[in-house]
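STRUCTURE:
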């Protein structure tokens, strides 16, 4: 005897890879058929449909609460029909917020913010679920239900332990983020991932680590509420998308408008131009936002419900580890280190500091600080802005003035002229960003770690400093 179908048996259909149809009938028996953006699984007795622009559907439901929805399995293309009875419309609350977050993220990424929005979440009672017989001409192969992409002896508990151990062994914030993304690739085969940390003072997320995109993209910023990543951060909700259109994936160019002359360039957000599925997980400590973990794939069905639920647990582990690392770094109290042996100076000041001449053939790097824009350019190309720019300029000026090349995190973060927030200053994350930007744009000038809470400037070029 065949067991009757339940809504939970149609998990793949609810991912929205293929559009669903809703059929309603008015009081005179006139039918109306239209597409619906979201069919959301609530429980075994209820589903919710997104109410957006469907005036005719709304009028029909007011006259006749019966409806039918046809959904399609994205792997087999088999059709299933849900017979429903309208119960109520919700315009606030957890269900509305969850469905609205998804729609607003799409709207933000496609430039439809404020236009493409959820009016209400219409809740329906599920009267029956049935397979549409004869929909497919040929017999379709059975497709296994969603399952973890793990092999051999690995299990959920073992996976959590394995990832947690890798994170716990990290000695600093940079190695922690790298360990987290490496674990996701090795254990889950997530090839394209990134971590963005939240800066409360600017209400922005900054990319500090990525995997699968090369070295570019470190320093890319996302304002809270913008695009898929910004929306997940604002709403503190996981966003999982399948079968994204090419123009939807990530809102590829997040641009910033600046008053007056725009001398700063935005760093492109790391991402696949042809991503078909995305999973964005806010990193939270209770309700406090620490950052965002993002994964994407060219496979339209790469991320399932299992990944969403399991990676929220992993995300909590990462958030806790980041917060612990930042707290530990903030509590360090180390005295300033003695002067180093390789001062970074401009040609004009070389005689004053008695620095040995730069080796023949060494290039000259010109760093220009635009005070109005709070940004540094190197040889005419944008390098860094805001607090990281001020940190670099302070280090270069101090080295030019005194000949020092070695510094401690503590002495720099106590400099009030840098404008670091008094609480949660994120100094380590700003130093990571500065280090990566120098590696990419000015490899002749580097910031290298010389011990816990210590770093040094190293240069293989003559540095000329210009302030405007």
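SEQUENCE:
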């Amino acid at each position: 005897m065949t067991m009757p179908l339940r809504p939970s048996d149609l998990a793949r259909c609810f991912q929205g890879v293929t559009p669903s149809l809703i059929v309603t009938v008015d009081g005179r028996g006139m039918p109306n058929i239209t597409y619906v953006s979201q069919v959301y699984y609530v429980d075994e007795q209820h589903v919710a449909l997104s109410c957006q622009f469907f005036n005719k559907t709304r009028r029909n439901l007011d006259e006749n609460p019966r409806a039918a929805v046809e959904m399609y399995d994205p792997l087999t293309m088999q059709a299933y029909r849900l017979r429903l009875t309208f119960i109520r419309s919700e315009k606030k609350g957890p269900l509305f917020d969850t469905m609205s977050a998804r729609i607003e993220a799409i709207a933000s990424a496609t430039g439809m913010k404020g236009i493409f929005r959820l009016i209400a979440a219409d809740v329906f009672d599920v009267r029956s679920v049935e397979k549409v017989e004869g929909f497919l001409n040929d017999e379709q192969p059975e497709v296994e239900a969603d399952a973890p992409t793990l092999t051999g002896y690995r299990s959920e508990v073992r996976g959590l332990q394995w990832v947690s151990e890798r994170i716990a062994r990290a000695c600093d914030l940079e190695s922690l983020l790298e360990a987290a993304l490496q674990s996701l690739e090795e254990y889950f085969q997530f090839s394209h991932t990134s971590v963005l940390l939240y800066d409360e003072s600017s209400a922005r997320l900054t990319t500090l680590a990525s995997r699968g995109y090369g070295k570019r993209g470190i320093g890319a910023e996302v304002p809270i509420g913008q695009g898929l990543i910004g929306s997940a951060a604002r709403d503190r909700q996981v966003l999982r998308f399948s079968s994204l259109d090419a123009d939807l994936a990530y809102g590829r160019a997040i641009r910033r408008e600046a008053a007056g002359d725009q001398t700063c360039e935005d760093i492109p957000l790391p991402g696949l131009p042809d991503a078909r599925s995305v999973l964005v997980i806010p990193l939270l400590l209770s309700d406090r936002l620490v950052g965002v973990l993002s994964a994407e794939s060219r496979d339209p069905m790469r991320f399932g419900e299992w990944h969403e639920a399991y990676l929220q647990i992993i995300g909590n582990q990462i958030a806790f580890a980041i917060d612990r690392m930042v707290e530990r770094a903030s509590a360090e109290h180390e005295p300033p280190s003695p002067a180093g042996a390789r001062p970074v100076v401009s040609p004009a000041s070389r005689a004053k500091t008695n620095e040995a001449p730069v080796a023949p053939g060494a290039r000259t790097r010109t760093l220009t600080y635009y005070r109005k824009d709070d940004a540094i350019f190197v040889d005419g190309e944008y390098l860094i802005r805001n607090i990281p720019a001020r940190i670099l300029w302070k280090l270069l000026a101090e080295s030019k003035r005194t000949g020092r090349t070695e510094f401690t995190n503590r002495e720099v973060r106590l400099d009030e002229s840098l404008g670091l927030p008094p609480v949660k200053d994120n100094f380590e994350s700003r130093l990571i960003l500065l280090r990566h930007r120098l590696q990419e744009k000015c490899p002749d000038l580097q910031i290298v770690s010389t011990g816990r809470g210590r770093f040094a400037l190293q240069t293989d070029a003559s540095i000329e400093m210009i302030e405007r």
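REMARK: Residues 347-467 form a domain with the Arc Repressor Mutant, subunit A fold (CATH 1.10.10.10).
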